Amino acid sequence: MKFGSKLIHNGNEIDEKTGALSIPIYQASTFHQQDIEKDQEFDYSRSGNPTRKALEKTIAALENGDRGFALASGMAATSTVLSIFSAKDNIIMCEDVYGGSYRIAANFFSRFNVEISFVDATNQDNIRKCIKSNTKAIFLESPSNPLLRITDLKACVKLANDHNLLLIIDNTFMSPYLQKPLDLGFDIVIHSATKFIGGHSDVIGGLVAVKGAELAKRIYAVQNGFGAILGPQDSWLLLRGLKTLKVRMDCQQKSAQILAEWLLENEKIEAVYYPGLTSHEGYEIHKSQADGPGAVLSFKTKEKDTAIRFMKKVNLAAVAVSLGGVETIVSYPVKMSHASMPKTERERLGITDNLIRVSVGLEDIEDLIEDFDRALIG
Fold this sequence. Notes:
- There is one protein chain.
- By secondary structure, this protein is of the alpha/beta class.
- It folds into two domains: about 5-240, 3-Layer(aba) Sandwich (Aspartate Aminotransferase, domain 2), CATH 3.40.640; about 245-375, Aspartate Aminotransferase, domain 1.
- About 40% of the residues lie in helices and about 15% in strands.
- The strands form two sheets. Strands 1-7-6-5-4-2-3 form a seven-stranded mixed β-sheet, sandwiched between helices. A five-stranded mixed β-sheet has the order 8-9-12-11-10.
């Protein structure tokens, strides 16, 4: 079954009891137990809820995983995964990771003596040199946020297998539609479902999909123990959003390609970062491991003042944090997604004050380009 059909027909779309074509919102905290001497599937919604279960089974099916987990946010998903590790464990993490992931790794888990090594993961030798006797996992993003840097995922699988390491990836930018890390050999996939999976800027949520029963047990122990679960209303919103994931992303990435090519020719633009451009570093690698370039791009203006003016003058796009909605969203990473990263570290990575990130929405691309042109000129 092709992906578009699988979004609609994955075994979790019809309520078994009534035949409803929308899974009911089981807005319940607890469940009556018919016989206290017999186990039953649902007893308390922190441990399990029918609406959340449908979503968790759906993300597992879409990622070709063995089990899925729905958490209260993308950061709850990332933190839950990192919590399966112990003091003195070492995790290698790509250095240009999402700012929130950098913050939780560098400032929170370090307090519990979980050692994080930040590396340029686009170079396999950098990862290899960082592997130590206590290294347990590699944590990646590809494309990365916000410069869309590409990591060779297949090469990382071989490296991880050679050293018996877990492989974790934040797959938010690509979604299950455009990239299937578990099929490539990864162990854990994380999504900020707030973004393309939800798709409408109206829900906060995180999803995890894993391979292997033992690993699933470890993730569930944290999910149930910490209790950072996704509520039934938000689970339902994500189930609804998923049904249109393919049609939204098909349109959005088509427009993103056109916008990236237009920006590339604009005299006020210094650089454009988008995996759909043949000039993008890692273009061929990305093409070999993903089914499309996605709908997020970044660009640098030649002057900082131009970037500031653009952010103030742009009209058709929302100026906001987040991405993946039906509306185009422009973000200013140094003040938004990566504000928590030290300035010296941001600048070393190329996250400068003339950088703008764009999540392309469903507007007509002609209107969007006209608006961008006006905002750049001022």
